[in-house]
Each structure stands twice: as C-alpha cells, then as structure tokens.
Amino acid sequence: MPVASAIAEATASDPNHSLISASNGPASPRVDAPILAQSILTTSAPGIASMDYQRNGDWEIDLSSGDALRVFKRHAHSSYVVKTDSGGRGWVPSWFVGSVTVIPLDAANRSVMDGVS
C-alpha cells in the first residue's frame, strides 16, 4: 500500500482528525493511528532500538531498548522509524537506532545442518 493511501485510510476512520500546517507548507492530517510497517511499500531497512528514548515533540516516538524497527528515512541526524510490532511511527535521533543484519533463512539452516551428522 502506498504511504499516501495508508495515511488516507487511517484518517478516514477518524472524522474529527485535526490538520497541522507547517509555516511554509500545506496543511497535513494529524494522524495517531498506527500504520503497520508491512503496509508501506517503499525502501526501508531493518533496525533495532539500541537504547530507551523519550520523545521530545509530537512528531517523535518513544523507544525501548530492543524494539524492532523499520527505518524509512534518515535526515540531518534523525531517522523516521515504524515499530514493527505496534505500527507506532515517528522521528528519533539516528544514534538510537542500530542496524540489523538479515541472514537468509536457507543460509541459516545450512550452517545449523552442517553440524548435524
């Protein structure tokens, strides 16, 4: 599902949602409904919260150490992340997000099976 469609779907469920506008841009819907990571079709990378983080603004998200994340954007020392378990999303300082190495399932099985006689 494209990001715009996911946001439209989330706001359609709340007819009383408010609009927030940037000083130099158009108003955009204020959405608190989760958008699950698997619903967004865009380039992303797996990540993990390396330590706890308490949000400092409306567009940030709280993290607990070990939270599984999808990182969708990095900009000016910040990362836009979506929690894979709850769908919560927001900006966090990039140094709170660690990278994850994904091992293909067949490679993991081969290394386990190599030790089995």
Note down, in words, how this protein is organized.
The chain is an alpha+beta fold. It has a domain at 34-114: SH3 Domains (SH3 type barrels, Roll). 17% of the residues lie in helices and 28% in strands. The chain has helices at residues 3-12, 105-114, and strands at residues 19-21, 27-29, 45-49, 68-75, 78-83, 89-93, 97-99. Strands 6-5-4-3-7 form a 5-stranded antiparallel sheet, with no helix packed on it. The longest helix has 10 residues, at 3-12. It is globular, with a radius of gyration of 17 Å. The chain starts with a helix and ends with a helix. Residues 16-30 have low confidence and may be disordered.
- SS strand fraction: 25-35%
Q: Would you identify the CATH H-level superfamily of the domain at 34-114?
A: SH3 Domains
CATH class call of the domain at 34-114: Mainly Beta
Q: What is the string of helix and strand elements?
A: HEEEEEEEH
Q: How much helical structure, as a percent, in the residues?
A: 10-25%
What's the overall geometry?
Answer: globular
What is the radius of gyration? 17 Å
- Total helical segments: 2
Biased composition (Polar residues): 13-26
Organism: Pleurotus eryngii (Boletus of the steppes)
Protein name: SH3 domain-containing protein
Region (Disordered): 1-27
